[in-house]
Design brief:
Length: 293
């Protein structure tokens, strides 16, 4: 994805971004210990892990010690001992937890790159980490979490959630189905309505900044323009407001870099344009902070 591309190209590039993943069954839950076949899959960055749990269960079912007590809804994934939050987008999880500098290159064969692809995750069905993860306690849990996040984003943009709440039942169903089926055209046919529904100026940019190794999410009210109302607020200005200890300058990365969809964001990029063309499906700019070497 290049921020110099036309808006439609950016939207499609964001939507089509994916991560090659290798998933291993926890040896302690496998009847063949660590000899279970790995599962390989290309996961969309803008999607969510639970949408793929049924596939994982089907693949690993024959390797499970006690498949009668293991249910797809009990599945959880971890990366290097960290349980993966199922209600966070997959691309965000990768960018945040690997801490990988996207400028390094995904095909670099240097052995010092400890997070070369595929991204290796471990699948569990036992010992659910309640202290770290919400439970997928009903079939609509993921959908509910997604819709709640879209309402929050709508409220930040417009000062209310009427755009989401006023969608017809058909459009609401189509909106969620576009996530389940990963359908770009269906998604943007609805999301375009949400972004342009109020007819009033945008109040705030829906943005969350995720700090590495701290399990900390920073969220502040960020207006689309600076106080003079004419100059759009940039990524650099927003980072300086939200995490000033890591972004000492609004023009140059000194300590850390802001990463969105696997791309290091130019500090000069206007947030309003990113909100219109490069948001995650829930309406937020989920920006991971990567520390500089």
């Amino acid at each position: 994805m290049s921020l110099g591309e036309p808006p439609a190209s950016i939207r499609r590039a964001v939507w089509e971004g994916s991560i090659p993943v290798q998933i291993l069954l926890d040896p302690g839950e496998s009847r063949v210990f660590d000899n279970a076949d790995p599962f390989y899959i290309q996961l969309p960055r803008v999607s969510y892990l639970p949408l793929f749990y049924p596939q994982l269960y089907t693949f690993f079912e024959s390797f499970l010690i006690d498949k009668d007590t293991c249910k797809p809804s009990e599945a959880w994934l971890e990366f290097e001992g960290v349980p993966l939050k199922w209600h966070w987008p997959i691309g965000l999880l990768y960018d945040l937890l690997t801490g990988r500098d996207p400028t390094y290159g995904t095909t670099n064969l240097n052995t010092e790159d400890e997070h070369r692809l595929p991204w290796t995750l471990t699948l569990h069905y036992n010992d659910y980490p309640h202290e770290h993860l919400m439970r997928l306690d009903n079939p609509s849990a993921l959908q509910d979490a997604f819709i709640n996040s879209t309402k929050e984003a709508d409220y930040l943009r417009n000062g209310n959630s009427r755009a989401v709440m006023s969608l017809s039942m058909a459009d609401s169903a189509k909106f969620w189905q576009s996530i389940e089926t990963h359908n770009f055209d269906s998604f943007w046919s609805i999301n375009e309505k949400l972004l342009s529904s109020s007819g009033y100026p945008i109040r705030h940019i829906p943005i969350k900044v995720y700090l590495p190794s701290a399990a900390k999410v920073v969220q502040k009210l960020i207006p689309p323009y600076l106080s003079n109302k004419s100059e759009p607020i940039t990524v650099g200005a927003a980072m300086r407001l939200m995490v000033p200890e890591l972004f000492l300058s609004t023009r140059a990365n000194i300590i850390a870099k802001p990463v969105l969809h696997g791309v290091v964001l130019p500090l000069s990029a206007p947030l309003l344009e990113l909100m219109r063309e490069a948001v995650y499906p829930d309406g937020f700019l989920h920006i991971a902070v990567t520390m500089m070497s």
